[in-house]
Design a protein that fits this description.
With 190 residues, the chain is of the alpha/beta class. Helix content is 27%, strand content 26%. The longest helix is centred in the middle third of the chain and has 13 residues. The relative contact order is 0.14.
């Protein structure tokens, strides 16, 4: 792994050895789990995919909202999935699945998710267009892709960059929350 992937600062994958820092409650200043859930407009029976969950900061709250549904956590780092697995097991959350991905394809059936969300992840994806196409494939026709970007993330996309990327792959912007610094953009298939 290159140095930029091991460092806490700079671009690249977030190093698993610093995963604990993603659990600091101070993070709520930028985006709280409650606010994210409101922005996702979750229904209790939704099937939801979280891409790049890290240690599961948002996962616990999202899974609890899905009382009749399921949350799938997908990551390319086994260490992050293991951290999230232990954390969610300690909270006795059972409506979850874990999927190790290869960073190129999302190994899920077509039209299998109501929501797909990422928080400070899209900027780390090297093949962004391919990933967005894959998300379009696995989203149900009325599904929503939700992308949140936060100030301080060195890989953060601007709202224009994100809009251009996602809309060029068959989505249309549905909702925008926040500001250029901290935002959530929801997209639906067009």
């Amino acid at each position: 792994m290159s140095n930029n992937k091991q460092s806490l600062s700079g671009k690249g994958l977030f190093p698993p050895k610093y995963a604990f820092t993603l659990l600091f409650p101070l993070r709520n200043i930028f985006l709280s789990p409650k606010k994210l859930i409101e922005r996702l407009d979750l229904k209790e029976d939704h099937r939801v995919l979280e891409i790049g969950p890290g240690p599961g900061y948002f996962s616990v709250h999202v899974a609890k909202t899905l009382t009749k549904g399921k949350l799938v956590l997908a990551d390319i780092q086994e260490e992050m999935l293991e951290y999230a697995r232990k954390r969610l097991a300690a909270k006795n959350i059972q409506n979850i699945e874990f999927k190790l991905c290869d960073g190129h394809m999302l190994d899920f059936q077509d039209k299998s998710f109501d929501r797909v969300f990422m928080v400070t992840v899209i900027g780390e994806v090297t093949n962004k267009r391919e990933y967005v196409r894959e998300i379009a494939r696995i989203l149900k026709d009325d599904g929503v892709l939700s992308v949140s970007e936060l100030a301080g993330d060195p890989d953060k996309l601007s709202t224009d960059e994100l809009r251009d990327l996602v809309c060029s792959e068959g989505f249309k912007e549905k909702e925008f929350f926040g500001s250029e610094w901290n935002y959530t953009m929801n997209f639906e298939k067009s």
